[in-house]
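User: Could you walk me through two proteins back to back? I'd like the raw sequence and the C-alpha coordinates for each, with a short line separating them so I can tell where one ends and the next begins.

Assistant: Of course. Protein one, sequence then structure:
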Amino acid sequence: MEGIRTIICTFDYGEEGFEHLLARLDLLHDLASEGRLVEATPLRASDVVGWLEDIIFTAEETIREIDAHTPAFHAFVDQTQSISQLGISQSVTDSLID
Protein backbone atom coordinates (compact mmCIF):
# COMPACT_ATOMS: atom_id res chain seq x y z
CA MET A 1 0.00 0.00 0.00
CA GLU A 2 2.83 2.43 0.84
CA GLY A 3 4.32 1.98 -2.66
CA ILE A 4 1.01 2.93 -4.27
CA ARG A 5 0.70 6.04 -2.11
CA THR A 6 4.26 7.07 -3.05
CA ILE A 7 3.54 6.66 -6.76
CA ILE A 8 0.36 8.73 -6.50
CA CYS A 9 2.10 11.49 -4.50
CA THR A 10 5.04 11.58 -6.89
CA PHE A 11 2.69 11.96 -9.84
CA ASP A 12 0.35 14.45 -8.22
CA TYR A 13 3.17 16.59 -6.87
CA GLY A 14 5.66 16.15 -9.66
CA GLU A 15 6.18 18.66 -12.44
CA GLU A 16 3.23 17.35 -14.45
CA GLY A 17 0.91 17.51 -11.44
CA PHE A 18 1.86 21.09 -10.63
CA GLU A 19 1.50 22.09 -14.30
CA HIS A 20 -2.00 20.60 -14.32
CA LEU A 21 -2.93 22.41 -11.09
CA LEU A 22 -1.61 25.72 -12.39
CA ALA A 23 -3.41 25.27 -15.73
CA ARG A 24 -6.71 24.68 -13.92
CA LEU A 25 -6.26 27.76 -11.75
CA ASP A 26 -5.19 29.81 -14.77
CA LEU A 27 -8.34 28.77 -16.67
CA LEU A 28 -10.46 29.75 -13.65
CA HIS A 29 -8.66 33.09 -13.58
CA ASP A 30 -9.26 33.65 -17.30
CA LEU A 31 -12.97 32.93 -17.02
CA ALA A 32 -13.34 35.03 -13.86
CA SER A 33 -11.51 37.97 -15.44
CA GLU A 34 -13.93 37.82 -18.39
CA GLY A 35 -16.97 37.70 -16.09
CA ARG A 36 -17.66 34.09 -17.10
CA LEU A 37 -17.21 32.33 -13.75
CA VAL A 38 -20.53 30.51 -14.20
CA GLU A 39 -18.96 28.62 -17.13
CA ALA A 40 -16.28 27.22 -14.81
CA THR A 41 -18.27 26.19 -11.76
CA PRO A 42 -21.78 25.83 -10.37
CA LEU A 43 -20.54 27.32 -7.07
CA ARG A 44 -21.44 30.83 -5.97
CA ALA A 45 -18.64 33.39 -6.38
CA SER A 46 -18.33 33.70 -2.59
CA ASP A 47 -17.81 29.92 -2.34
CA VAL A 48 -15.12 30.01 -5.03
CA VAL A 49 -13.37 32.83 -3.18
CA GLY A 50 -13.56 30.81 0.03
CA TRP A 51 -11.96 27.79 -1.66
CA LEU A 52 -9.25 29.97 -3.19
CA GLU A 53 -8.50 31.53 0.21
CA ASP A 54 -8.20 28.02 1.70
CA ILE A 55 -5.86 27.00 -1.14
CA ILE A 56 -3.70 30.10 -0.61
CA PHE A 57 -3.55 29.51 3.15
CA THR A 58 -2.58 25.86 2.68
CA ALA A 59 0.05 26.73 0.06
CA GLU A 60 1.61 29.37 2.33
CA GLU A 61 1.64 26.96 5.28
CA THR A 62 3.23 24.28 3.08
CA ILE A 63 5.98 26.71 2.06
CA ARG A 64 6.63 27.49 5.76
CA GLU A 65 6.84 23.76 6.56
CA ILE A 66 9.20 23.11 3.64
CA ASP A 67 11.33 26.02 4.80
CA ALA A 68 11.39 24.75 8.38
CA HIS A 69 12.35 21.19 7.42
CA THR A 70 14.69 21.80 4.49
CA PRO A 71 17.87 23.71 5.41
CA ALA A 72 19.02 24.05 1.78
CA PHE A 73 15.67 25.58 0.85
CA HIS A 74 15.95 28.05 3.73
CA ALA A 75 19.35 29.19 2.46
CA PHE A 76 17.92 29.53 -1.06
CA VAL A 77 15.00 31.66 0.17
CA ASP A 78 17.34 33.92 2.16
CA GLN A 79 19.60 34.36 -0.87
CA THR A 80 16.66 35.02 -3.20
CA GLN A 81 15.21 37.60 -0.83
CA SER A 82 18.59 39.33 -0.59
CA ILE A 83 18.89 39.45 -4.37
CA SER A 84 15.32 40.70 -4.67
CA GLN A 85 15.92 43.44 -2.11
CA LEU A 86 19.11 44.42 -3.91
CA GLY A 87 17.20 44.66 -7.18
CA ILE A 88 14.55 46.87 -5.60
CA SER A 89 17.16 49.05 -3.95
CA GLN A 90 19.08 49.32 -7.21
CA SER A 91 15.99 50.38 -9.17
CA VAL A 92 15.14 52.99 -6.53
CA THR A 93 18.72 54.27 -6.63
CA ASP A 94 18.65 54.37 -10.44
CA SER A 95 15.43 56.39 -10.45
CA LEU A 96 16.90 58.89 -8.01
CA ILE A 97 19.96 59.40 -10.20
CA ASP A 98 17.85 60.04 -13.30
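----
Protein two, same layout:
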Amino acid sequence: MSITDPSSPRRVLVPRLVAAAFLGSIAVLAIASWDVARGRVPETASPLLLDVLNSKEDRTCTRDLPDLAAKHFPKGMAEAEARALLAAARVTPPSPWFWTPKPEDRISPAGVPGDLTFVRTLRYTPFGNHHVNGALTLADGKVTGARLRVICALG
Protein backbone atom coordinates (compact mmCIF):
# COMPACT_ATOMS: atom_id res chain seq x y z
CA MET A 1 0.00 0.00 0.00
CA SER A 2 1.50 3.34 -1.02
CA ILE A 3 0.67 6.89 0.03
CA THR A 4 -0.84 7.54 -3.40
CA ASP A 5 -3.35 4.75 -2.88
CA PRO A 6 -6.78 6.35 -2.17
CA SER A 7 -7.50 3.86 0.60
CA SER A 8 -4.21 4.59 2.40
CA PRO A 9 -4.71 5.65 6.08
CA ARG A 10 -1.99 8.28 5.66
CA ARG A 11 -3.84 9.91 2.77
CA VAL A 12 -6.84 10.44 5.03
CA LEU A 13 -4.98 11.20 8.26
CA VAL A 14 -2.64 13.97 7.02
CA PRO A 15 -5.39 16.35 5.78
CA ARG A 16 -7.34 15.77 8.98
CA LEU A 17 -4.29 16.65 11.12
CA VAL A 18 -3.66 19.78 9.05
CA ALA A 19 -7.31 20.81 9.40
CA ALA A 20 -7.28 20.16 13.15
CA ALA A 21 -4.09 22.23 13.61
CA PHE A 22 -5.58 25.04 11.52
CA LEU A 23 -8.85 25.08 13.47
CA GLY A 24 -6.97 24.90 16.78
CA SER A 25 -4.88 27.96 15.84
CA ILE A 26 -8.00 29.87 14.82
CA ALA A 27 -9.61 29.03 18.17
CA VAL A 28 -6.55 30.23 20.12
CA LEU A 29 -6.36 33.46 18.11
CA ALA A 30 -10.10 34.08 18.49
CA ILE A 31 -9.95 33.65 22.28
CA ALA A 32 -6.86 35.86 22.57
CA SER A 33 -8.47 38.55 20.39
CA TRP A 34 -11.65 38.42 22.44
CA ASP A 35 -9.65 38.80 25.66
CA VAL A 36 -7.83 41.84 24.29
CA ALA A 37 -10.88 43.38 22.62
CA ARG A 38 -13.11 43.21 25.68
CA GLY A 39 -10.60 45.35 27.49
CA ARG A 40 -9.53 45.06 31.05
CA VAL A 41 -11.37 47.39 33.37
CA PRO A 42 -8.67 48.92 35.54
CA GLU A 43 -9.24 48.78 39.28
CA THR A 44 -8.03 51.77 41.28
CA ALA A 45 -8.98 53.83 44.30
CA SER A 46 -7.03 56.86 43.09
CA PRO A 47 -9.24 59.87 42.30
CA LEU A 48 -6.64 61.06 39.78
CA LEU A 49 -6.64 57.83 37.78
CA LEU A 50 -10.43 57.44 38.07
CA ASP A 51 -10.88 60.89 36.54
CA VAL A 52 -8.48 60.03 33.71
CA LEU A 53 -10.28 56.73 33.06
CA ASN A 54 -13.69 58.43 33.11
CA SER A 55 -12.69 61.26 30.79
CA LYS A 56 -14.55 61.55 27.48
CA GLU A 57 -11.76 60.20 25.29
CA ASP A 58 -10.98 57.21 27.51
CA ARG A 59 -9.42 55.04 24.79
CA THR A 60 -7.77 57.83 22.83
CA CYS A 61 -3.98 57.72 22.92
CA THR A 62 -1.69 60.73 23.11
CA ARG A 63 -4.07 63.22 24.60
CA ASP A 64 -3.41 66.09 26.95
CA LEU A 65 -5.52 66.58 30.07
CA PRO A 66 -5.02 70.19 31.19
CA ASP A 67 -8.32 70.38 33.10
CA LEU A 68 -7.51 67.28 35.19
CA ALA A 69 -3.96 68.52 35.81
CA ALA A 70 -5.30 71.80 37.19
CA LYS A 71 -7.96 70.00 39.25
CA HIS A 72 -5.65 67.50 40.98
CA PHE A 73 -2.47 69.60 41.13
CA PRO A 74 -3.62 73.19 41.76
CA LYS A 75 -1.07 75.98 41.87
CA GLY A 76 0.32 76.39 45.36
CA MET A 77 -0.01 72.71 46.30
CA ALA A 78 2.93 71.50 48.43
CA GLU A 79 5.42 69.13 46.82
CA ALA A 80 4.94 66.59 49.63
CA GLU A 81 1.17 66.58 49.06
CA ALA A 82 1.67 66.09 45.31
CA ARG A 83 4.07 63.19 45.96
CA ALA A 84 1.56 61.58 48.33
CA LEU A 85 -1.16 61.88 45.67
CA LEU A 86 1.14 60.27 43.09
CA ALA A 87 2.22 57.50 45.46
CA ALA A 88 -1.44 56.54 45.93
CA ALA A 89 -2.13 56.58 42.18
CA ARG A 90 -1.89 52.89 41.32
CA VAL A 91 -3.89 50.55 39.15
CA THR A 92 -4.21 46.94 40.27
CA PRO A 93 -2.73 44.79 37.49
CA PRO A 94 -4.98 42.07 36.06
CA SER A 95 -4.17 38.47 36.85
CA PRO A 96 -1.95 36.90 34.16
CA TRP A 97 -3.59 34.66 31.63
CA PHE A 98 -1.64 34.35 28.39
CA TRP A 99 0.53 37.39 29.18
CA THR A 100 2.04 38.90 32.31
CA PRO A 101 1.26 42.56 33.06
CA LYS A 102 4.31 44.78 33.49
CA PRO A 103 3.68 47.91 35.55
CA GLU A 104 5.81 50.93 34.68
CA ASP A 105 5.36 53.36 37.57
CA ARG A 106 8.04 55.96 38.23
CA ILE A 107 8.35 59.24 40.14
CA SER A 108 11.43 61.44 39.98
CA PRO A 109 13.42 61.33 43.23
CA ALA A 110 12.87 63.91 45.96
CA GLY A 111 15.43 66.64 46.48
CA VAL A 112 16.29 66.94 42.78
CA PRO A 113 15.81 70.52 41.56
CA GLY A 114 13.50 71.11 38.63
CA ASP A 115 10.29 69.47 37.53
CA LEU A 116 8.71 66.51 39.31
CA THR A 117 8.10 63.99 36.53
CA PHE A 118 6.12 60.79 36.82
CA VAL A 119 4.71 57.87 34.86
CA ARG A 120 1.76 55.82 36.07
CA THR A 121 0.36 52.76 34.30
CA LEU A 122 -3.28 53.39 33.47
CA ARG A 123 -4.37 50.33 31.49
CA TYR A 124 -2.62 47.01 30.87
CA THR A 125 -2.80 45.30 27.46
CA PRO A 126 -0.82 42.38 26.04
CA PHE A 127 0.75 44.60 23.38
CA GLY A 128 1.76 47.54 25.56
CA ASN A 129 0.45 49.68 28.40
CA HIS A 130 -1.39 52.97 28.50
CA HIS A 131 0.37 55.46 30.75
CA VAL A 132 -0.31 58.78 32.38
CA ASN A 133 2.81 60.88 31.98
CA GLY A 134 3.07 64.09 33.88
CA ALA A 135 5.31 66.89 34.99
CA LEU A 136 4.82 69.28 37.84
CA THR A 137 6.74 72.55 37.74
CA LEU A 138 7.97 73.37 41.24
CA ALA A 139 9.20 76.59 42.81
CA ASP A 140 9.99 76.94 46.50
CA GLY A 141 8.45 73.51 47.24
CA LYS A 142 5.10 74.47 45.67
CA VAL A 143 3.46 73.44 42.40
CA THR A 144 3.41 76.29 39.89
CA GLY A 145 2.25 74.30 36.85
CA ALA A 146 1.08 70.82 35.91
CA ARG A 147 0.89 68.78 32.72
CA LEU A 148 -0.80 65.39 32.24
CA ARG A 149 -0.76 63.32 29.08
CA VAL A 150 -2.02 59.83 28.26
CA ILE A 151 0.39 57.79 26.14
CA CYS A 152 -0.13 54.33 24.63
CA ALA A 153 3.15 52.45 24.42
CA LEU A 154 3.55 49.36 22.26
CA GLY A 155 5.87 46.57 23.17
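The domain at 41-152 is CATH 3.30.160 (Double Stranded RNA Binding Domain).

Let me know if you want the two compared in more detail.
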